[in-house]
Write a structure and sequence with these properties.
Number of helices of chain A: 21
Number of strands of chain A: 4
CATH class of chain A: Mainly Alpha
Number of domains of chain A: 1
Order of helices and strands of chain B: EEHEEHEEEEEEEEHEEHEHEEHEHE
CATH architecture of chain A: Orthogonal Bundle
Structural class of chain A: mainly alpha
Distance between the termini of chain B: 31 Å
Number of strands of chain B: 19
Strand content of chain A: under 5%
Helix content of chain B: 10-25%
Strand order of the largest sheet of chain A: 1-2
Strand order of the largest sheet of chain B: 11-10-13-8-9-12
CATH topology of chain A: Ribonucleotide Reductase, subunit A
Helix content of chain A: 55-70%
CATH superfamily of chain A: Ribonucleotide Reductase, subunit A
Radius of gyration of chain A: 24 Å
Radius of gyration of chain B: 21 Å
Oligomer: heterodimer
Number of domains of chain B: 3
Shape of chain A: globular
Largest interface: A-B, 36 and 35 residues
Number of helices of chain B: 7
CATH superfamily of the largest domain in chain B: Nucleotide-binding domain of ferredoxin-NADP reductase (FNR) module
Structural class of chain B: alpha/beta
CATH class of the largest domain in chain B: Alpha Beta
Largest sheet of chain A: 2 strands, antiparallel
Largest sheet of chain B: 6 strands, antiparallel
CATH architecture of the largest domain in chain B: 3-Layer(aba) Sandwich
Shape of chain B: globular
Distance between the termini of chain A: 72 Å
């Protein structure tokens, strides 16, 4: 009897996708994997640590779907949304569906591209599987959250909003940038920076936030996705190790990408920071604590190991470290200012939340941020709720309004500029300016929502014109939580307050 | 109560204690099973249970689904054996590893040599057919003065001398086990031990010159491996770089000098880190990684590196080798941890065994 094949041999026989082409040159078949300057001596050195075959992939993923949908159905049948901690929590889900779910879809597209265009078959197979995972994640998230769309506002046009609305252009631009880069840079941008270094900072706040606030269905898709995440994280690490080990000339290129994509990812996370500290009625941990555990400790161990390859920690970590006491408060301030053109609600934290923030941010919150919130609360009481009437200048690179302050003067907006071909470009930080200066030709093409409004490309000159073009239900999707239809509906579900108008009539 | 777990495709048997996970036991036995989250969420460490039963512990129903449980799969990071097991994990077969059964031995101390102020050579005679092992492996020695406590020591003698086991015991400051062996053990004493253990050995099927980097009593397994290679007629270039503090601590200097003279493919490079400046020492001075870096002008690719000794030395060597373009798949190492190293700092999942 012949010997039973071990997993590695079985995998080899199940996944033969690589051969030397004969009637077309390999360079013509794989036109994109050389121009970035990454030198590869031996594609066979790519190790796929998972060795998953397609047949088992379908089987397992199909089984996960069955499980997830059983729980989603049960959640819907039991009116699970009535067990949330508070109606404000819904806004974290809105941000997730509008800002993160479309990224899963973008990741699907990006990995599909890489799954076709990397010369090594090991890399191709791994990217193809991840591409399918990402599509599955996008779908399951949409299906899970669709339950809330039956009962609340701010969920109905998320893909449309993702392509147009100002705060959503922040995550969108990250993936647009990654997907228009070469295949190796995409692997560092998404596989390494996003899926490895920053993934816990993205998912833990949402998933443990969901668990803390009674959202069982979101917790379940979190688990379902997490069973794929390890494969993604490992792919990101393997891609980076592969580049670093193949040729020493690759090291400075990879270093530049690590610098760039850690910073790009960090800026995207500033929205998560605000969500975590302000939108979750019950908070498992503060943004600062999450940053310390998931970036400073875990990332620190990683960068210690990477030092052996001659890779140093990403640039501007000292800025991130200084900003961890400020980031979420500054961003929530911006969201509160511009709640009119946003498809979610904002509010001034109640006293219990303010005290929690003081406890979590003892060095900064009472000194810089509590007085500002109290001032705005006072204005609300007087019927003068403060809405910023102008549109903010956006950073040319990360597309966040330029509202961050200098870290040595918290009353001074951090503001950087570069000139390129007689035009002036504005940045929120040295990190963003650096990235622009290295590749200005790419970033002068950025689609900046505020610029586009002023150029007349967003429906018209007035706020109403723009909101119509955004396809907002004005007065339902936007403005404050207090007094909103969502609040009325939530109170009704809890058996307090007056019965709200039917949502379809809004 | 503990269970025997055979890990395929290696065919290696490990001992798993009650309430211990398979992953933990495997890692402690030096067998790398791919893993990531470590608490049942990610399914990286999924294995097949071919024979026997396990409890699945906290494995998430998504990371280990019901159909998989029915098919005999489990997550090594959560699974606890409830019987002896045969499992199959996704690990590469090591064609150079020999498989020897772990047995219990009782021997008699026949000689205690003082090699250096800190290192003693302990020679233990065993009866009958002796111990079968692969050069580079270690034994667990029961320390008579410490009740049931065991300490691990590499075998310094080559496998050809299977009735006389040589151990090199370095006195660990504040270490109860080594202190007892240094001060209380006498010729004629009976010692109990079990072995062989460990997966540190020469990878002779892989091409390329061999570079051995050792420090302190880490010389012990290098001695066993090098003598074994020479006895078997190894022809490829072999270099031993051995670091000690000063001439007093440099042991087996004569043995390796003679080997260097006798075999044209063997080079012995002793290195002293703390030798008085004005001494008669004409050899190299400095720390092993620094000297190795200069010796090879920062170029290590193509070699196979073997490291044995104190963890900080090995750590520094790895960095030097990687800067010199030699990576994990071409490195093999045996860290001489002491009881004091139990609280190790968190490692990232970047490397498998570094």
């Amino acid at each position: 009897m012949s010997k039973r094949l071990n997993l590695k041999e079985r995998y080899k026989h199940m996944t033969r996708l690589g051969w030397e082409t004969t009637y077309q040159s390999m360079d013509d078949v794989f036109p994109y994997d050389t121009y970035e300057g990454i030198k590869v001596k031996d594609w066979d050195a790519w190790e796929d640590p998972f060795r998953m075959t397609m047949d088992s992939y379908w089987k397992y993923q199909g089984e996960k779907e069955k499980k997830l949908y059983a729980i989603i159905d049960a959640f819907a049948q039991n009116n699970g949304h009535t067990n949330l901690s508070d109606g404000r929590y819904l806004n974290a889900l809105k941000l997730f569906l509008q800002g993160v779910t479309p990224l899963e879809y973008q990741a699907h597209r990006g990995f599909a591209h890489n799954g076709r265009h990397m010369r090594g078959e090991g890399a191709r197979v791994a990217c193809q599987m991840q591409s399918l995972d990402e599509l599955r994640h996008a779908q399951t998230q949409i299906h899970t959250i669709s339950h809330y769309n039956k009962h609340f506002n701010g969920f109905h046009e998320f893909p449309h909003w993702h392509d147009r609305v100002w705060y959503l252009s922040v995550p969108k631009s990250f993936f647009d940038d990654a997907r228009t880069a070469g295949p190796f840079e995409f692997m560092i941008a998404v596989g390494f920076s996003f899926e490895y270094v920053l993934t816990n900072l993205l998912f833990v706040p949402f998933m443990s936030g969901a668990a803390f606030n009674g959202d069982l269905s979101t917790v379940t898709f979190g688990f379902s996705a997490q069973s794929d995440e390890a494969r993604h994280m490992t792919l990101g690490l393997e891609a980076m190790k592969f580049m670093l080990e193949q040729h020493e000339d690759n090291v400075p290129i990879v270093q530049r990408w690590i610098d760039k994509w850690t910073w790009r990812g960090y800026k995207v996370l500033s929205l998560i920071a605000a969500m975590q500290d302000y939108m979750l009625p019950e908070s498992p941990m503060s943004w600062k604590e999450a940053w310390e555990v998931y970036f400073e400790e875990n990332g620190g161990a990683l960068f210690n190991d990477l030092a052996r390859y001659g890779i140093r920690p990403p640039k501007y970590l000292e800025v991130c470290a200084a900003e961890k006491d400020h980031l979420s408060h500054q961003v929530w301030g911006v969201l509160y200012n511009y709640a009119a053109p946003a498809a979610m609600h904002t509010w001034i934290p109640d006293d219990r939340k303010l005290d929690w923030l003081s406890e979590k941010y003892p060095d900064t919150f009472d000194k810089y941020y509590r007085p500002r919130f109290l001032h705005w609360r006072e204005m609300e009481k007087q019927g003068k709720r403060f809405y910023n009437g102008s549109l903010p200048m956006l950073c040319q690179l990360c597309q966040i309004p330029m509202a961050f302050t200098e870290m040595d003067d918290f009353t001074q907006t951090c503001f950087r500029t570069s000139e390129y071909k007689d035009d002036k470009y504005h940045f929120c930080s040295d990190g963003c300016k650096d990235i622009f200066d290295y590749e200005p030709e790419k970033y002068v093409q950025a689609w900046l929502p505020v610029h586009q409004i002023y150029q007349g490309n967003c429906g018209g000159p007035t706020l109403d014109d723009v909101l119509k073009w955004y396809q907002f239900n004005v007065g339902s999707d936007n403005f404050d939580y207090v007094g909103s239809e969502d609040e009325a509906r939530w109170n009704d579900l809890q058996g307090k307050g007056e019965k709200p108008a039917d949502k379809s009539a809004a | 109560m503990s269970y025997q777990v055979v890990i395929e495709p290696l065919g290696e048997t490990i001992e798993v204690e009650e309430e211990q996970t398979i992953l933990d036991a495997a890692l402690r036995a030096g067998i790398y099973i791919p893993h990531a989250c470590g608490h049942g969420l990610c399914s990286t460490c999924k294995i097949d249970v071919l024979e026997g039963d396990v409890e699945h512990g906290d494995a998430s129903p998504f990371a280990l689904m019901d159909i998989e449980r029915d098919e005999g799969k489990t997550l090594a990071c959560c699974a606890i054996p409830t019987s002896d097991l045969v499992i199959e994990a996704d690990i590469d077969e090591d064609v150079d590893a020999e498989s020897h059964l772990v047995r219990d031995f009782t021997g008699v101390v026949t000689k205690i040599d003082t090699f250096s102020p800190r290192i003693k050579g302990i020679f233990i005679a065993i009866e009958d057919d002796g111990i079968e092992f692969q050069a580079g492996q270690y034994i667990n020695l029961k320390i008579p003065g410490l009740g049931d406590e065991y300490r691990a020591f590499s075998i310094a003698s080559p496998p050809s001398e299977n009735n006389l086991v040589e151990l090199n015991v370095c006195l660990v400051k504040g270490g109860k086990g080594t202190e007892w062996l240094h001060t209380q053990l006498k010729v004629g004493d009976e010692l109990k031990f079990s072995g062989p253990y460990g997966r540190f050995h020469a990878h002779t099927s892989e091409p390329g010159p061999m570079l051995f980097l050792a420090g302190g009593s880490g010389l012990s397994c290098m001695k066993s491996i090098i003598l074994d290679l020479m006895q078997k007629g190894e022809k490829r270039p072999i270099t031993l770089m051995y670091g000690a503090r000063n001439q007093d601590e440099l042991y087996y200097w004569d043995l390796f000098r003679e080997l260097d003279d006798e075999y044209s493919n063997f080079t012995y490079v002793p290195i002293l880190s703390d030798e008085p400046k004005d001494s008669a020492w004409t050899g190299l001075r400095g720390l092993v990684p620094t000297v190795a870096d200069e010796y090879y002008e920062g170029q290590f690719s193509g070699k196979k590196a073997y490291m044995c000794g104190p963890p900080p030395m090995i750590d520094a060597c790895i960095t030097t080798l990687m800067r010199g373009r030699l990576f994990e798949r071409d490195m093999f190492m045996e860290n001489f941890y002491t009881e004091a190293d139990r609280d190790t700092k968190p490692a990232s999942p970047l490397f498998k065994s570094i």
